[in-house]
Amino acid sequence: MEQYSTDKKPQINIVDGSRVFFTSDTHFSHANILKFCQRPFKDANHMNEELIRRWNEVVGPDDIVFHLGDFAWGGSDVWNNIMSRLNGKIYLILGNHDEKNIRQGYMGRFEWVGYQMHITIEGRSIYLNHYPFLCYGGSYRGKDAVWQLFGHVHSKEGMTGMDKERLVNLFPTQYDVGVDNNDYRPISFREVSDIINKQINQYEKETDKKQR
Q1: Which of 64, 174, 179, 204 could form a cystine bridge with 184, CB 3.0-4.6 A?
Q2: Residue 23: helix, strand or coil by DSSP?
Q3: Which helix (H) or strand (E) holds 83?
Q4: Is 177 in contact with 184 (CB distance < 8 Å)?
């Protein structure tokens, strides 16, 4: 496979995370995803328009967006059209569907393209990958634990998919940033922080009860 990412992984250390967002599994122009994930849109065009609108409602032109894979379904016309309408400086973590569609003609429009990233935001170390990890370095460091953000599983309230039972084994420091789990829009670093901290607190309470 031709390599589209840069020679070196970017060393990203963001001091102020107030304008940083995460998302995944937009699946622009993928008609079958409407049925697979029971998305509340009439058709693929309606989905595209809503996802673009909701994206631009929260993301500004100079904001940073880490997209964790399965961006779009289709050729250059789809990718170029969608990208020209989205706000933000977008870093793409490749998902399984992206591998079928990547082309040099539009991959260069992303800030960076690769299979995973390890970034730091406001001193917090974060792994970005399309898939949730079973285990990873730094997950047992207590309050200083490394976080992992992912997509792929299309989780949401009331989900009934094949991954439902597996997701109960996630660390409290992991979170699905996919659109199905986040009102079909990118989620901010501040929101992710609040969610993960609540998950950690809940995990600690449950662990404490078991140990009594």
Answers
A1: 179
A2: strand
A3: helix 76-83
A4: no
Tokens read off for 40: 């509340």
- What element of type H or E holds 189? helix 189-211
Collapsed DSSP state (helix, strand, coil) of residue 52: helix
**Phi and psi torsions of 66, nearest 5°:** -100, 110
- DSSP per-residue letters across 86-133: --SEEEEE--TTGGGT--HHHHTTSSEEESEEEEEETTEEEEEESS--
Q: How many CB atoms lie within 10 A of CB 29?
A: 19
pLDDT digits (tens, 9 = 90+) for 79-127: 999 999 999 999 999 999 888 777 667 888 899 999 999 999 999 999 9
Which amino acid does the sequence have at 125? S
User: Distance of alpha carbon 206 from its chain centroid, rounded?
Assistant: 27
Query: What one-character DSSP code corresponds to residue 176?
Result: E
User: Tokens for 146?
Assistant: 């490394």
Residues paired with residue 21 on neighbouring β-strands, in sequence order? 65, 188
Q: Per the confidence metrics, is the pTM higher than 0.70? A: yes
What is the per-residue pLDDT across 116-159, written as a single tens digit (0 to 9) for each? 999 999 999 999 999 999 988 888 887 789 999 999 999 887 66
The count of C-alpha atoms lying within 13 angstroms of the C-alpha of 132, restricted to the half-sphere facing its C-beta, is: 21
CB 74 within 8 A of CB 29: yes
- The answer to whether 129 and 157 are in contact (CB under 8 A) is no
CB atoms within 10 A of CB 150: 26
